TrEMBL record:
Requisite cofactors: Mg(2+); Mn(2+)
E.C. numbers: 2.7.1.180
UniProt keyword Metal-binding present: yes
Protein name: FAD:protein FMN transferase
Organism per entry: Microbulbifer pacificus
Catalysis: reaction(s): L-threonyl-[protein] + FAD = FMN-L-threonyl-[protein] + AMP + H(+)
Class of enzymatic activity (EC top level): transferase
Pfam family, one: ApbE
Family, as annotated: Belongs to the ApbE family.
Entry binding sites for Mg(2+): 165, 288, 292
GO MF annotation terms: metal ion binding; transferase activity
Keywords, sorted A to Z: FAD, Flavoprotein, Magnesium, Metal-binding, Signal, Transferase
Length: 331
């Protein structure tokens, strides 16, 4: 009798049941978080693996830190002549150029011409001389993409590109497509500041925290969301404070070739400076470049851009730590 119960209990634990599944891995220089609901939890490891593999695949192709990535190859060769590129890279560059156009160059993947000389962990930046010298090579118009031939050429041989302002948003979208292909209907995927939510949290909304830009232990806001993407750009993720007490961070103003001014001073224009930008919209492929763009554009021009677009909302925090919302969030 006792043996029978033991066997029954074994069957009960090995048979599948529905549950939430969690995974967290360090990829793309950040933490990838995954949470999803599966009706048959024995399938969870396979699903989770497929999603994390996709992040790793994209990282291997687009990382500027991996010498054998497609991006690194392009940065070595496209200044010398047209290079053949993958359809995926062509699509991401095309989207980037679309946002360069829409933002008057605030979003510009050629920021990397100077950005690649910065090392935030080592506290290293480009000096004024090299900045002045290379600034003309920072210009999205140097990037010539032939979508039909699938080729890329940089018109200035010094130009370099980096897709750090769009790749994570693209990746969370890809992750959601993979989850959907497995029949998953409720999930949350995030890579650093870019998150995509599939469905709701089974009867309640997902609660997404926007971090306080000057206090890591606090949220500045918590927002209920479902079936959407949200991307946050801030000057507090990757930065160091230089000898002049300047915050040297990772979001560049392509017009100056330097990190976007965010420090609080005593001038009126500080009201326009932003230190945190969150954009809500259908896909990470758009919310990610838009959060970077609005950050560079500043409060007035940034919010005006979001008001122009359908399906997008913004939550911004200015240099005086005041929070503002686009009109669709104000009720
Ligand atoms: P995070 O990487 O923390 O999610 P963002 O989405 O704002 O933050 O992306 C910042 C990244 O975008 C930088 O690390 C850099 O790779 C890239 N980037 C910085 N400035 C620009 C810019 N003006 N246009 C396009 N990409 C940029
Ligand atoms: Mg972004």
């Amino acid at each position: 009798m006792r043996i029978f119960f033991f066997i029954a209990a074994l069957f009960a634990t090995s048979s599948s049941h529905a549950d939430w599944h969690y995974d967290k891995q360090a990829i793309m220089g950040t933490e990838v978080h995954l949470q999803f609901w599966v009706d048959d939890d024995s399938r969870a490891p396979v699903i989770s693996h497929a999603v994390m593999d996709e992040f790793r695949r994209i990282d291997a192709a687009l990382s500027p830190y991996k010498e054998d990535s497609e991006l690194s190859r392009v940065n070595r060769e496209a200044g010398k002549g047209a290079v053949k590129i993958s359809q995926e890279l062509a699509d991401i560059i095309q989207k980037s150029l679309y946002y360069s156009d829409k933002t008057g160059g605030a979003f510009d993947i050629t920021f990397a011409t100077l950005g690649s000389l910065y090392d935030f962990r080592k506290g290293q930046k480009a000096d004024q001389k090299i900045t002045d010298e290379l600034l003309p090579a920072v210009n999205f118009r140097h990037v010539e993409l032939d979508s039909k031939q699938q080729t890329l050429v940089f018109r200035d041989p010094r130009t370099k590109i980096d897709l750090g302002g769009i790749a994570k948003g693209y990746s969370v979208d890809r992750a959601v497509s993979i989850l959907q292909s497995f029949g998953v209907q409720n999930a949350s995927v995030s890579a650093g500041g870019d998150a995509r939510l599939l469905g709701d949290k089974r009867g309640k909304p997902w609660l997404i925290g926007i971090r306080h830009p000057r206090d890591r232990s606090k949220n500045a806001a918590v927002i209920p969301l479902e079936n959407t993407a949200i991307s946050t750009s801030g000057d507090y993720e990757r930065f160091f404070i230089d000898d002049d007490d300047h915050r040297v961070h990772h979001i560049f103003n392509p017009a100056t070739g330097q990190p976007t001014e965010t420090d609080t001073g005593d001038t009126g224009s500080d009201q326009d400076k932003l230190i945190s930008v969150s954009i809500i919209g259908p896909q990470g492929f758009d919310t990610d470049p838009l959060s970077t763009s609005v950050f560079v554009l500043g409060k007035q021009r940034g919010l005006a851009l979001i008001e122009q677009l359908h399906n997008f909302e913004a939550i911004v925090i200015d240099a005086n730590h005041r929070m503002f919302f686009s009109s669709g969030l104000q009720q």
